[in-house]
Each structure stands twice: as C-alpha cells, then as structure tokens.
Amino acid sequence: MKLFDTIAKLGHEQLVICSDETAGYRGIIAIHDTTLGPALGGTRFWTYASDEEAITDALRLARGMTYKNAVAGLNLGGGTAVIIGDNRTTNREMIFRAHGRFVESLGGRYVTAEDVGTSTADMDFVHMETDYVAGLANKSGDPSPVTARGVFRAIMASAMHRWGSSDLAGKTISVQGMGNVGTYLCQELHAVGAKLIVSDIRPEKVAHAVKTFGATAVEGDAIYSAKADIFAPCALGAILNDQTIPALKVEIVCGGANNQLLEPERHGEMLAQRGIDYAPDFVANAGGVINVYSELAGWTRERALRKADEIYDTVLGVYRIAKEQRVFTYLAADTLAEQRIAAVAGMVRTWPQWPRKDA
Which of 114, 234, 303, 348 has its CA 20 to 30 A from that of 275? Predict the structure, then answer.
C-alpha cells in the first residue's frame, strides 16, 4: 500500500497507528475531514487478515462517517478507529483504556463511540482515560434502536419512491445480519406486517428471529438469492459486489451495514443496470450517529428518534437528485454531503478568534 497516496486520494487529514503491547492493544485511528466539527466515528474491534486490510477498513469507514454526519445535518466531521484482535476476548479493560489514552492524545479532534465488536461497557473503559467518547451506558447508551429506526424509515421512503406507497404490509424483506441493528429492524418491520427472511453466522440469533418475528431462515450466501421485495444488509460491508449483485432477486437494497458497495462506482452502476433501487448506506444508517450526537448535544432519546425519522425525507431527496441529475443514488448522496461541507467551509470567518480567555 502506498500510504500517503491512498490518504491523499481519499482526502484524509490524519492516520494514527497506535500500539501498547503491555495492554495487548493494536489500534488505528483515521480522521477524514473536520470541516464541520470534530471527527466522530465508532471503534471497531475485529480480526483482520492483515494490517493493510485494517488500515483500508479504517480509511473507508472514516470517509463514510464524514458523509454520513454531513447528510444527517450534524456539526461533526468523520473519523473511525479499529482495534485489531479477537473481539470475543473477556480481557477488555486494558485494551480499551489504552485506546482511550490514544484518543485523548488527539485533543478532541476525534470522538469515539461503539461499533462492531464493541459495547457500551467498552466505552466506559475508554472513558476512564478520556472525555472524548460517547455512547456511554448511563447516557445515550446503545445506538442500535435509533439506527434501526432510521433504516426502517429509509426502507419506507424507498418503498414510496419505488411503488408510490410506504406501506410495507405484505412486503418480503430479507435481512442479512441479526446483530443489534438487524434485530431491532426486524422488530420494526414485523410490527407493520412485513414478511421476513433472515440470515446470520450465529444460529442462536437466527433462531430468535424465527421464533419472535415468524421469519424464514436461510443459511450463508443463500440470503443473496432469496426472492424478496427488499434486501436489507445489516452485517459487514463490501457485500454488494460482482458475485452477489447478479444473484439478487429484489427491487430495493436498503440496510444498516456500512460501505455496502465494494467498489461504489462499479457496483452502484451494476445495481442500476439491474433495475434495483439503492438507498446509500450512510444515509440510511445515520440513526446511530444521530444517537451519539444526541448525547453530545444533550438531546433526549425521543428527540433522537424524531431526528432519525427525518431520514425518510433525506432518502427521498437522494432519489430526487438522482433522477434530476441522472446520476446513481450513491453519487446523489455524495452531492448532498459535499454541498453542506462546502457551504460551511465557505462561511466568512470573523476575527479575532484568538486568544480566547476564560472570564
């Protein structure tokens, strides 16, 4: 990997490689853009095949957070951290305290929160070493319900765009991934009468969905070829690619996973050529970052859910721009984000801003 060329191409400001062998900690913090405010993004704890794969994941996720925060109308930039290791370990305190120290060293340029493989309890360990952390158990807590609400509203908006009605009763929706977001999404969909097809690498999660929501279970890659109206990817990213897109038997793709398109330009076009509407992931799943922002801004959970409901209108706006400008939806979503970033960057700065002394 030509590291500096890669960072320059994606527009990142900073990449921090962190290590504390005593704590068993190996981490990467990527800061993409701080035009709108401090970079906010979760910490992912995952077993990567190589250090290069971990860096690539961090860079992709950080860029996605910039666009997600911008489209959601939040005063936050984009960043992400990844910790390399087995997230099933029970020896977590020293790992996450070490992570907190490196977050603290950035002086507020990056604010972390939970992500795949981490929990509110892990963030409490991070909080022992820094105040630049959100998603704490005694504050906004688990963002999954708000993320799922936003994805649910994005699915409704996609249905309105596609079929002229947001009513999901009787529609079949295949959900990949029965983690917290996927499970809460199934709960929302089941409540409005949707039929569910589910898959997950953990049999107990699938069994819970079958029992609780009357879902039909499929194994592994069979989820891609399952006949449904909507496919909702809620596991890991890069799952829309040369192998999976031809297998899809749906009219809409809209889910909670990050970076669903392996190669945005190539695979966004492939979906369009197949006549499949795609709700860009960083628009649909912005409920999680809205929940975290609600903690920083002092919002109630109810206000966070109301903000997540606005994703419905945002998704319709993406489809409208895509139609008017004759571009793919992932480009239309980028346009929305870039317009807001450019507007803030272009605001007149008033002086003096320094020194600012406390009274």
Answer: 234
